[in-house]
């Protein structure tokens, strides 16, 4: 079970982080190559990614929470959960407070207004912070996936030793 939820978490994280990287790449490329199409396509891409992101964030968080519950004493898993939660908070803030007003201003043709510029910069910073939190979570995943270290114990058949104060080669 622990292996299953660990893999679920890793896959959800990979889809989330990879999707975010792809979104950055595609939107940037569109603006460089064809600004007219980019202005039309980018808002739609962000809207679709927002829904996708909310789904994979939920799966990643549930998976990380279950993984943590099934693996007591694993600080790395707790840290991964915290990084995923921070990124998920960014997703929620963007979905509720940033993208809707940006979209409204875009529809009203106010893409050069100071308010649009401020919200756009805030959105860029938030997406960058989310990507950084996801990157950090991914860097820690190999540590969390490693088998737990067990304390070294004495061998079951230890060599007999002489009692304290008696020579070891004493013959009876």
Compact summary:
This protein is mainly alpha-helical and 172 residues long. The protein has helices spanning 2-33, 35-70, 75-107, 114-145.
What's the layout of helices and strands?
Blueprint: H1 2-33, H2 35-70, H3 75-107, H4 114-145
Describe this structure in words.
It is a single chain. By secondary structure, this protein is mainly alpha-helical. 77% of the residues lie in helices and 0% in strands. It has four helices and no strands. Helix 1 (2-33) packs antiparallel against helix 2, helix 1 (2-33) runs antiparallel to helix 4 and helix 2 (35-70) runs antiparallel to helix 3. It is rod-shaped and about 100 Å long. The termini are far apart.
